[in-house]
Amino acid sequence: MAVGGSGSRLAPAVCGVKAFRGRVDLVFGPAPVAEACDAVISGARARRSGARFGPAIQDVARFRLAGSQNSIAPMKKLTDDVWVLEGFPPYAINVYLLGDVLVDAATRFAAGRILRRLRGRAISAHALTHVHPDHQGASHAVCASLGIPLFCGAGDADAMETPGLMMQKMRPHWLSRSIGGIWQGPAHPVSRRLREGDAVGGFTVLETPGHTEGHVAYWREADGVLVVGDVVCNMNIWTGLTMLREPERIFTPDPALNRRSARRFLELRPSLVCFGHGPPLADCSRFHAFIASLPRDT
Ligand SMILES: [Zn+2]
After folding, report:
1. Which candidate in 58, 154, 215, 239 could, as Cys together with 193 as Cys, close a disulfide (CB 3.0–4.6 Å)?
2. What's the gap in Å between 293 CA and the centre of ligand 1?
3. How large is the average pLDDT for residues 23-35?
4. pLDDT for 73-119, tens place per residue?
5. Distance 277 CA to ligand 1 centre (A)
6. How far is the centre of ligand 1, averaged over its atoms, from the C-alpha of 271 (Å)?
7. Whole-prediction pTM
């Protein structure tokens, strides 16, 4: 599906391209639409037309998976040893490959797509930023299929391993309970409970609680790549517009703690920020300005 191009027939109401101040940004529908699309078109060929993306990712490289016989599959190489596995609409719910470690696994409907895109690659482990249903949905299927261990933040590990506990920890809201219940994946044993300073896929773990108890980010100091999960989002999940935002309160048990976690990023100078939702951002100044603008706590 081309973003906003002629190939967007699958979801014409939710895809488009926004031109603003000489810049072209992705526009796509609400995140809840994303995995619905994914489920419907799972197995279909996603033909890309090389649409122009925002400046942060214009130079993203495209390549075919080794060993794949078809031309779908594209993962996008963002920088050395960092790829994003696209879903539908693009960047609504992101899955990353950091070295040989898969980070996050979208919803349970995404398992087939993720496994197809990983075909032919040696994957050593699967790690999570946090255990919400839009990030751990396909974790069990991926780990079981590839025979790889699962890592997540120590504070989220019990929720990952205990059926029903993740949903109990979410704020009691009809939307999180309904969509979360559909998207969530099965419980799965956690092989490694990640702590501050641990090494994963060439990145260092930063503990960033608030959106979940055990939320973690991944930081590679050598070239300034930062994977923030849902501490900060680069998409309005209701409109699909690309914009920096805090995660929705209805999905965030402790917004004040999440803001404190976000302020940790002010100490870093990332060259590329990768989000759980929304396209990557190479503008560190904008990222810092957004975090600095967050209210001091209420
Ligand atoms: Zn999320």
Report:
1. 154
2. 22
3. 38
4. 578 999 999 999 977 788 999 999 999 999 999 999 999 999 999 99
5. 6
6. 22
7. 0.77
172 contacts: CB under 8 Å, gap ≥ 6: none
For 236, the domain range is: 8-292
Number of domains in the chain: 1
> For the chain, how far is it from start to end, CA to CA, in angstroms?
42
Q: Which of 111, 128, 137 is nearest to 230 (CA)?
A: 128
CATH code of the domain in which 89 resides? 3.60.15.10
Where does the chain have alpha helices with state H?
31-41, 111-118, 133-136, 139-146, 154-161, 165-169, 174-183, 255-264, 284-292
Is position 2 within any domain?
A: no
Could you tell me if residue 263 is inside a domain?
yes
| Torsion angles phi and psi, residue 291, rounded to 5 | -65, -40
Q: How far is the CA of 138 from the centre of ligand 1 (A)?
A: 13
Cα 90 to middle of ligand 1, angstroms: 14
Ligand 1 centroid to Cα of residue 93, in Å, is: 7
Residue 64 in any domain: the answer is yes
Lowest-confidence range among 3-17, 23-37, 272-286? 3-17
* Å from CA of 229 to ligand 1 middle: 7
In a domain, 297, yes or no: no
Asked whether the predicted pLDDT for residue 141 surpasses 60, the reply is yes
69 CA to centre of ligand 1 in angstroms = 32
Task: Report the separation in Å between the CA atom of 247 and the middle of ligand 1, taken as the mean of its atom positions.
Answer: 8
